[in-house]
Amino acid sequence: xxxxxxxxxxxxxxxxxxxxxxxxxxxxxxxxxxxxxxxxxxxxxxxxxxxxxxxxxxxxxxxxxxxxxxxxxxxxxxxxxxxxxxxxxxxxxxxxxxxxxxxxxxxxxxxxxxxxxxxxxxxxxxxxxxxxxxxxxxxxxxxxxxxxxxxxxxxxxxxxxxxxxxxxxxxxxxxxxxxxxxxxxxxxxxxxxxxxxxxxxxxxxxxxxxxxxxxxxxxxxxxxxxxxxxxxxxxxxxxxxxxxxxxxxxxxxxxxxxxxxxxxxxxxxxxxx
Length: 273
Hints:
By secondary structure, the protein is mainly alpha-helical. It has one domain. Helices cover about 85% and strands about 0% of the residues. The chain has eleven helices and no strands. The protein has helices spanning about 1-10, 15-50, 55-65, 70-110, 120-135, 140-155, 160-190, 195-205, 210-235, 235-240, 245-270. Helix 7 packs across helix 8 (about 195-205). The radius of gyration is 23 Å and the shape is globular. It starts with a helix and ends with a helix.
C-alpha cells in the first residue's frame, strides 16, 4: 500500500504541460457545448414552426378543428422535424466522438512527446477507439436498470438508503470506467491498435491488480472529497441566485480538473515499470 500511496502523492506534482492539457479539454468541451446549443436552438425553431408558438391546449384545439390543408401542413412539419432530429442526432454523435478523439490524441501525443500528425488514418483510428468507449459506456444502463429495480423492491420507503446505494454505484462506475479507458488510451498511444490496446488494458489490470485497485481507491476518495468540498465551498447565496446552467458548467469545469489529474495519475502509474 506504501507504493500506491507514493504514486498517489506524486500525482499532484504537475509539470508545466498540465495547464496546457487542461486547456485542451476546456476548449473541446466548449466547442461541443456550443454545437449542442446550436442544435437545440435549431430543434426549438422547428418546434415553433410545427406549433406556431401556441400552447398545448390551443394547439390541440387547432388540430382537431383544422382543415385538411392545415393537417397536411402539420404532418409535413412533423416529418421535417423527425428527419432533422434523427439526422442531427447522428451528426452530433459523430462530431462529439471525432472531436473527443482528436483532442485526446493531441493530449497523449504531448504526454508521450510524440510527433502530432492529423492524418485521416490517425483520426479514424482514434475515433474508432472512442466509438468502442461509447459502446462500453452503455454497460452503465445494463447494470443500473436491474440495480434500481432491486433497490426500489427492498427499500421502497427508504429514499435516503436508496440514494446512498445508487450514489455509490454512480461514483464507482464512473471512476472504474474512467480509469479503465485511460489505461486503454495509454496502451493505445503505444500500440496504435484498438482491440490490442483493449486486450492490453485487461492484461495490465490482471498483472497489476494491486496498482489498479489502488488507483480506484484513491481516485474514488479524491472524487468524493472534491464533491464534499464543492458543496461547502459554493456559497448558498450563489446557488440560489445562479441559474442551473451556471451551476452545471461550474461543476463540469471542476470535473474536467479532476479528469486531468486522474489522466496524469493513471498514465504515470501505467508507465511505471
